[in-house]
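Review form for a predicted model. The reviewer records the input and the model, then writes brief findings.
Reviewer: anonymous (R2)
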Amino acid sequence: MQDFLELALRILNGMITIGFFPFLFQIYRKTSRRFYLLWSLGFLLYGLNIIIRGIFLFTDFGMPTMGSLFAFIFLISGFILLLTGVGDLVNRARTALIFSMILPLLVIIIFFATGPENLGRAISLSPYLFISTGLLVIRRRYAATLDLLIVGWLILLLVNIGQPLGLISSSFVEMMAVFGKVIIFYGMASPKFSFLVDDLKRYLISGTPEVYNNENHLGLTLINSGEVDRNTEIQWIIKKIGENSPKAVRTVVVTIYDTISPRDLRAAGLDDDFFLVRVLAGGTGHLRTFEEQIMTLSDDPNELELLFSDIMGFSNDKKIRCEIILYSLSILIHTHGWKRIYTFLLSKMSQLKVSNVAIYAFYYPKTHSEDADIAKFEKLADRVIAI
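Model under review:
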C-alpha cells in the first residue's frame, strides 16, 4: 500500500512537472523570450525523469537498469536547461551553460572518488542547490522579485536533503515536491514575473552601479575624429564602454554599415557590457529595442528616430542613464543628405534635453564639401570635442 501511494504521488509529481512545458512554451511563442523556451524544455525533461523513475523503479515493468539510465540522462539534461535559463534572465546564458556542465563532471568525480553509494545524493542535491543559489544571487544583485520561485526551489532542495538522511519519508518528499512546484508555477504565472523577465533580459545587463557616476553632462556631443585613425576611434569607444559599465550606464553603439563589428569590441574583453545596433541597407526595418545584445536595423532615418526615442523613453521610465555612440554621423549625412539628418537630430533635441541620455556622434569635417552644412551640426551640438 505504501509503495502504491508513493508511486501515485511520484506520477502526480511528474505530470505536474511536465505540465509546466505547454504553459511556458506558449509564453515563449508569444514573447520569443529564450528563458521560457529553456525552462519549458527543462521542466519537460525533468518531469519525464520523474515518470520514468516511477514506472521503472517502482514496478516490475521493463528493465530497471535501462530505466535508471534514461532517468539520469533526462534529469541532467533538464537541469542543464533550467540552469542555463537562470543565467539567461540576466543575459548570462553562455556562462550559466558552461557552469551547468559541472553537473555531469561532478557526478563522474564522485562516482570514481567515493563509489556509487554517494552518487544518488550528488545527483539529487547539486541541481537544486545551483538553481536556488542562482536565483538568490539575481534577487540580491538586481533587487528582482523572485521570492516565490526561490521559496519553491528551496523546498525542493530541503526535501532532497532530508530524504537521504532518513528524516522524511519518500511519500512526504513527493507531496512536498508537488507543493514546491505549485509555488514555482504560481510565481511564473504572475504577470509581474513576465515584466521581470522583460526587464532583466532587456536592461539589467551591466548590473548594479559599482562606481558613483558624477558626470553631469548630457545632450549631444560631436566628436571631431578627422585627425586620428580608426584604431584610435575604436579604443576611445572601448574605453567609454569600460567606464560606463561599473556605473551601470547602458551603452548603445550604433554602427552604420558595420563600420564597427562585435569582434572589434569583444577583442578588448568586452562581453555583455554594451548593446550593438547594426544599421544596414535592407535591414529588418523593425527593431524591438534592447531585445538582444546585437540588433539589426534598417538604414531608414525614420527607424533611427524610433530607436533614439525608445532609448530616451526607457531612460526616463527606468531612471537609468544611457549613452548612444553613433559611428558615424558623417556616413549618415553622405548617404541621406545633410537636411534629412539635421531634421532628424533637431527633432530629437527637445526630448534629449529632458532625458537621462547622452549622444556621442563621430564626424569628419574634411569629408564634407560645404563647411556651412557641417557647421549647422556643430551649432546644434552641446559641445564639440576632438580625440
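Findings: The radius of gyration is 26 Å.
Further findings: Confidence is low (pLDDT under 50) at residues 59-63, 202-214.
Recommendation: see findings above.
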